[in-house]
Design brief:
TIM Barrel, 20% strand, alpha/beta
Length: 249
């Protein structure tokens, strides 16, 4: 007789076999790396980077997931069965799996069997999301966290596209999210404060913008005192400091 857990795993495997995700890259297995941002900064991690995004941030460092004027989607993305992605992650001893993009929640239905398979295999999961798509209740479970990065005006994206109140309300109410803002100037901290107050966003992480170590150090020094004075958390982009612009690290 099958146990309930065995039956659950069988259903998860069956669901995973029937769905796929448009994927840009997976890394962190053969060449180890770590989560570079947010609460798990510095923790060894595997990355599943999904393709496609609903925003067009000017400073984006993963434009190969959405900018088809500059990149060819046929070369930059493949459709991967969820079962294959789960098997890939479970073959590694690394506990943390970061699902990022692009905007991963655009493919949310297929994320549910992915997350179930990863959790059943003993992994924990972090999503990197821009906060414009509300999370499905099936993803609001133990072992799953959301690093929500609402975009500021510095992104160059219209506010009605980058700020979706219902989605931010859902993340704030979930108890499973932190809110991480890509920031260039001290003046932008007022914009962050206004959003945090309006939508009850906490805890607040401020992440200096920079795609080179030199730029990142300069922005960090510019922001550090002002962030500390507001009682917020200053986070880094350790992958930029460690690996510069190397893709897949």
């Amino acid at each position: 007789m099958k146990t309930p857990d065995a039956e659950s795993r069988q259903l998860t495997n069956a669901a995973a076999a029937d769905v796929s995700l448009i994927t840009a890259e997976c890394f962190g297995d053969t060449q180890p790396t770590f989560q570079g941002e947010g609460p798990s900064c510095g923790v060894p991690a595997l990355f599943i980077r999904l393709s496609r995004c609903n925003l067009t941030c000017g400073w984006c460092d993963t434009k190969y997931t959405w900018d088809w004027h500059e990149f060819d989607p046929r070369k930059e993305s493949t459709r991967q069965p969820v079962a294959n992605l789960v098997a890939w992650a479970l073959a590694s001893a690394v506990e943390l799996v970061v699902v990022t993009g692009g905007e991963p929640l655009l493919q949310q239905p297929a994320l549910i069997p992915l997350v179930r398979g990863l959790l059943d295999g003993g992994k924990r999961v972090e999503f990197e999301t821009n906060g414009t798509v509300a999370p499905d209740r099936a993803l609001l479970v133990d072992g799953v966290r959301f690093n929500v990065s609402p975009k500021l005006s510095n992104s160059g994206v219209a506010k009605d596209r980058r700020i979706r109140p219902s989605a931010l309300d859902a993340f704030a109410a979930s108890g499973r999210a932190v809110f991480k803002f890509v920031t260039r100037t001290v003046a932008e901290l007022d914009e962050i404060e206004a959003l945090a107050d309006q939508y009850g966003l906490a805890p607040v992480y401020v992440m200096p913008e920079g795609t080179t170590p030199e730029r990142l150090v300069a922005t960090t020094r510019l922001l550090a005192d002002a962030v500390a004075s507001r009682g917020w958390i200053l986070t880094q982009r350790l992958h930029v400091l460690a690996f510069a612009e190397t893709r897949g690290r």
